[in-house]
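Dock histidyl-adenosine monophosphate; give full complex structure.
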Amino acid sequence: MIRAIKGTRDILPPESEIWNQVENLAREILLLYGFSEIRTPIFENTELFSRGVGKDTDIVSKEMYSFLDRNNRSITLRPEGTASVVRSYLEHQLYNDPQILKLYYLGPMFRRERPQKGRSRQFHQLGVEVLGSDHPAIEAEVIEMLQLFLNRVGITNTELLLNSIGCSHCRPNYLKILKIKLINTQANLCVDCQRRALTNPLRVLDCKIESCQLIIKSLPSILDFLDQPCQKHFEQFLQYLKDRHIKYKVAPLLVRGLDYYTQTTFEITSTSLGAQNTLVGGGRYDGLAELLGGQSTQGFGFALGIERIILLLQEKFASLTPKTPTIFLAPLGEKGFKKATLVAQNLRNQGLRCLLDFTPRSLKSAMRLANKLKTQYLLIVGSEELESGKYPLKRMHDGTQILVEEKEIFYKIENGLEN
Ligand code: HAM
């Protein structure tokens, strides 16, 4: 038997209904804040990610699904959305719009990580990118929006972690010191970090291996190396959060796993998830557009892992009732069935959720099935009814039954079987 590939899974009903509700709520809130949807391709030139996300990151060096196509071009299934959005922004010259651009996307991403609870190889992100502003207030606004979403979806027990990792002006000073410190303790670092210490020392701060963690804790904080503009930006950002009564914790080791970040970085974690407890990750990436060969563009955004949100909601939604058909059509006999197919077409045209039974069965068995499916109404379409032109319409929850003509069905249901 052919099975789904390791690290991927099917989202079946009724869980798919939870997904729809979460996505609909997200879209509703994004609209309140003026975001519009962008849909970029699932696969891109590999170079987009190696340049954008960074060759030394785990994502690019170990986790990408890359392959050569028939023209020997290296193609990659997108591991994240930010690089694609910025590519699209440059390709379509969206910078010609005088407004700041607020875009969002929802869809699958691919990383070849070790699957575990909350971590898969195909996963889904809701991502947001604001292009064309370096104002710290936009960062606070985006976080405010995230909090509204989490509150409305019913997720509590979260923590907002913040940091600033400086800019191309002040970060090199920090990296110089960091490199020296790391080289001095190189023997105690993991093999990956021994290499990172030389090529990309900031990545060491992201290492989860215990022996490295001990060293990381003793390293200087990047916050002590910020230049005046970066410091001011960070302070203003924190103030905008305070003004909104948004609680946060400054986490000087929060450098994130992607190379494009400058200044603000942030994560929202949940205390109710296991090891994979980061719900949201994001930050500012003012250098990314230039890295991709475009003009300098300020950017800020985040991505939220939908699987992790769903994991947290599963308990809450255990009692979720999927949208059931409003009316079940029980045909009796061949003639009844033919008529019922047309009644169904008619009712659906009028906007009723309608289920037509395709299996010949007794009326008793049809009733049982309608009950099981939790439909609100049942309509019997048999040869007797065809002759009289009047059909029994039954309300399932209290058994009330009336006789209706075909043209009255919709109206009667709308009015709860009253006149
Ligand atoms: P990221 O931290 O790599 O950031 O991913 C964001 C979120 O995606 C994570 O916090 C997590 O919830 C979810 N996620 C990541 N990998 C997996 C996985 N293997 N399985 C399940 N969920 C996962 C980015 O992707 C950046 N593009 C975010 C960003 C947008 N920064 C600025 N703009």
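Observed: Residues 15-32 form the longest helix (18 residues).
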